[in-house]
Write a structure and sequence with these properties.
The structure holds two protein chains of two kinds. By secondary structure, chain A is an alpha/beta fold. Chain A has helices at 20-28, 73-83, 104-116, 128-133, 140-147, 162-168, 185-200, 206-215, 219-240, 246-259, 264-305, 310-327, 330-346, 348-362, 370-376, 380-386, 393-402, 412-422, 426-451, 475-509, 518-524, 526-538, 545-553, 560-568, 576-585, 597-609, 614-624, 627-654; strands spanning 6-14, 32-36, 43-50, 56-61, 94-100, 121-126, 137-138, 151-153, 241-242, 464-467. The longest helix of chain A is centred in the middle third of the chain and has 42 residues, at 264-305. The N and C termini of chain A lie far apart (93 Å). Classes of the chains: A alpha/beta, B alpha+beta. The A-B interface holds A 16-17, 66-67, 71, 103, 105-106, 109, 218-220, 223, 226, 230, 243, 249, 252, 256, 260, 350, 354, 357-358, 361, 366-367, 391, 459-469 and B 1-3, 6, 33-42, 44-47, 53, 56-57, 59, 63-70, 72-73. Strand 10 of chain A pairs antiparallel with strand 5 (65-70) of chain B.
Chain lengths: 658, 82
């Protein structure tokens, strides 16, 4: 046989989610063929690959199966191919069994069934990295001895162990280990007879057929065979798998006795969450200061290097101010993701979801929605993406739709600017900030409850979650995740925000006025003109046209509200204190104070509820697959924000507040 | 050929949500709209399961792994004393 012709057919078998398809892709690369099984709509994937010895094999990716007693059409195909009953399919020369190392005991049953059919078998012990991460210690040699087939530890995702696996598929294949259990003489005789009957009936794999027929001939025999197989698995697992030591499990149970306790659990959860939020705001201050300084020096440098003019203004007021105004939140985002990864990696996040399930349930959601909503406090975009872990489609949609009401960090600069205009004293201001976050969250949960039944018929949310043992965080994983998020954020600042900043700068700068006064220039610009057009719309909220302009600009990104106000009120200072003084001093046309507490509250209410973030709308479209939901959310939230601000201002005024 | 023993065994079957805390059970059947999801996470026929807590969401141990599931899901798992 020439080295380039096919030398054998290998069937890839495994439980769904064992990583079979990832391994198939890793082995065959581009050399794949997709077709259909004869008489079925189930797709048949096959491909070719070479071993290190130059042998060319065909690999057939059989549908995922939990066992060879089929419960679904997919499983029927797998069984059919293996026992030689599938039309148009030859039986394979070897079976490559993919087992999930993190859930070995469950996957070994299928392996035993395949071995019983009399095939030569090689085992790919997949997800070995995750298993090691969970503290499982596997002994492939002991397992190989117990099952009589080679166990090769691999990680299909990282390609770890793939060369060893190809080496193990050396041709000619090893002899099949054969059935690993023996029944009473009566049963063995029945199996013998059944095999010869299958052979005389012309079955393509009489041994497999014969055994299958006997196993299905009565529940007593089936029970006996199952029991014997499980006894074998228990023995093998005892020798070949060491779970995280008993001490670690006992420790997990001891911690869980508190962490999942209906009272103490909540105390721990609240304390942890408060500590996380406090740390985010506290520890981010210093690096945020550095970014601010860096931005100011860069602006200073460019002002010096480039002569005054539109180009200088574009770089300084447009690009650097716009991108810098967003980049300044990088430390907060990094810290939030650091804590989220830390809680996930240590195993606590699953417990938080378990606790939150009760509250989420009242809103028609489940504990699975908790993590996406928590991420929403940093930024709605990763929050929306995190909803992929919610299996129920309606629950996922409801979570996506309410998610922007968990106050993201881009709203913070607006809150920190306006809250001190309304309240004096650190305590009152902190409580106000807490109230703002609580109001957003509460409205989001109420909205979910109202919305979910209207999204169509749906079953009650189900809760199913693995609670991994507590462990030391895997620092490389934590840091990699934080790095990826930070990079994605910086990329967004460098692309979307950069583009929007340039457009905003253009709208703020043109058409040019003759006046040197930036406030006059702003008024005459396109943005200013839009603001004047908007005045009748925003004045019922207590706002003037400059606030209207800033609000329109903030639909590109909320952070722009602050810089837009800074330009409108002719202050170069983006420093909060100086800018607040300027705002407090500003008057309406009739001489009355513009920024009264009621106007401040009206602005805050608008910002709590409005979806002023175009990138979020784009991501929602991508995740829901429809502009209908994305635009509906944008319009709905903006309308709600407007009406809420209107209600607060008008009711406040009628009660005599200013 | 169902025997008396099998009948008795079937009679003693109960759902995981009815099962007592702290005892070992064997999963006899997983049936219902979420059966695939349940099998995926580890609730497969013949596996041994131990219930750790009761409540709206209960905690179980399957092969040394701690799993939490809601009552309606636990109702889809039929177990017999191991």
């Amino acid at each position: 046989m020439s080295k380039s012709s096919l030398e054998a057919r290998i069937a890839l078998v495994g439980n769904p989610n064992a990583g079979k398809t990832t391994l198939f892709n890793a082995l065959t690369g581009q050399n794949q063929k997709v077709g259909n099984y004869v008489g079925a709509t189930i797709s048949r994937k096959s491909g070719t690959f070479f071993t290190p010895h130059g042998h060319k094999f065909e690999l057939i990716d059989l549908p995922g199966s939990y066992s060879l007693e089929p419960n679904s059409p997919d499983e029927q195909i797998t069984r059919g191919v293996l026992i030689g009953d599938q039309d148009g399919e030859e039986t394979p020369d070897l079976v490559l069994c993919v087992l999930d190392a993190t859930n070995l005991e469950r996957h070994l049953y299928l392996l035993l069934q395949v071995i019983d059919l009399g095939y030569p078998v090689v085992v790919a012990l997949n997800k070995i990295d995750s298993a090691e991460g969970q503290g499982l210690r596997l002994d492939p040699t002991a397992l190989s001895e117990d099952f009589g087939v080679p166990f090769v530890p691999i990680s299909a995702i990282t390609s770890r162990g793939l060369t060893d696996l190809k080496q193990a598929l050396r041709h000619p294949f090893p002899a099949p280990p054969g059935r690993l259990w023996k029944g009473p003489a009566e049963l063995e005789e029945a199996i013998e007879k059944s095999i010869s009957l299958s052979a005389s009936n012309g079955a393509s794999n009489p041994a497999a057929h014969g055994l299958m027929n006997v196993a299905q001939s009565g529940s007593k025999i089936a029970d006996f065979i199952q029991k014997t197989r499980f006894e074998h698995i228990h023995r093998a697992v005892e020798a070949g798998l060491q779970r995280p030591d008993e001490a670690a499990l006992a420790l997990t149970d001891r911690i869980d006795a508190h962490a999942l306790h209906p009272v103490r659990g909540w105390f721990i959860f609240t304390t942890l969450m408060l500590a996380v939020f406090w740390s985010i705001f506290k520890f981010a201050e210093v690096p945020m200061g550095w970014i601010e300084q860096g931005q100011a020096s860069l602006q200073g440098l460019i002002t010096k290097l480039i002569g005054e003019g539109d180009f200088q203004s574009l770089l300084v007021d447009g690009v650097i101010a716009g991108v810098g105004g967003v980049l300044i939140f990088l430390p907060q985002i990094v810290l939030l993701f650091f804590f989220i990864s830390l809680l996930e990696s240590s195993g606590y996040m699953a417990r938080a979801a378990f606790l939150m399930d009760g509250i989420m349930n009242k809103a028609g959601l489940s504990g699975k929605s908790f993590l996406p909503l928590l991420s929403g406090y940093a930024c709605a975009i990763p929050g929306v993406m995190a909803t992929r872990t919610i299996p129920n489609a309606k629950e996922r949609l409801a979570t996506i739709l309410i998610l922007p009401w968990t106050s993201c960090s881009a709203r913070l600069p607006v809150y920190t600017l306006i809250v001190p205009l309304i309240f004096a004293g650190a305590l009152a201001q902190s409580l106000a900030l807490f109230g703002i976050y609580a109001l957003g969250t509460l409205t989001a949960l109420i909205a979910a409850r109202v919305l979910k039944p209207r999204l169509g018929k749906t079953e009650a949310p189900q809760f199913l979650l693995e609670l991994p043992p507590y462990q030391k965080p895997q620092w490389d994983h934590v840091l990699r995740q934080v790095g990826e998020r930070a990079f994605a954020f910086v990329k967004k600042a460098g692309t979307v925000i950069l583009g929007l900043s340039i457009i905003l700068w253009f709208l703020n700068t043109y058409p040019k006025s003759d006046s040197e006064d930036p406030a006059v220039q702003q008024e005459q610009s396109f943005n200013g003109q839009i603001g004047q057009l908007l005045e009748p719309v925003v004045s019922p909220l207590g706002w003037d046209n400059r606030m209207g302009t800033a609000m329109i600009a903030s639909f590109a990104a909320r952070e722009v509200f602050r810089s837009s106000l800074a330009i409108s009120y002719a202050t170069d200072e983006e420093d909060g204190e100086a800018m607040r003084d300027k705002l407090s001093a500003s008057k309406r046309g009739d001489g009355s104070t513009l920024y009264t507490p009621l106007v401040g509250i009206s602005i805050i209410i608008f910002f709590i509820y409005a979806l002023q973030c175009l990138p979020t709308t784009v991501v929602v479209k991508r995740e829901t697959g429809s502009w209908k939901w994305a635009l509906g959310q944008l319009v709905g939230m903006t309308l709600f924000a407007y009406l809420a601000a209107l209600l607060v201002y008008q009711v406040g005024r009628s009660l005599g507040y200013s | 050929m169902p025997s008396l023993a099998t009948d008795l065994k079937l009679d003693s079957a109960l759902t995981l949500s009815q099962a007592a805390i702290g005892c070992e059970f064997q999963i006899r059947r997983v049936e219902g709209p979420a059966c695939r999801q349940l099998r995926d996470i580890g609730f497969c026929e013949q596996m041994r399961v131990k219930k750790l807590t009761n409540g709206r969401n209960m905690l179980c141990s399957v092969c040394g792994i701690r799993l939490a599931l809601s009552k309606d899901l636990a109702d889809q798992i039929q177990v017999v004393p191991a």
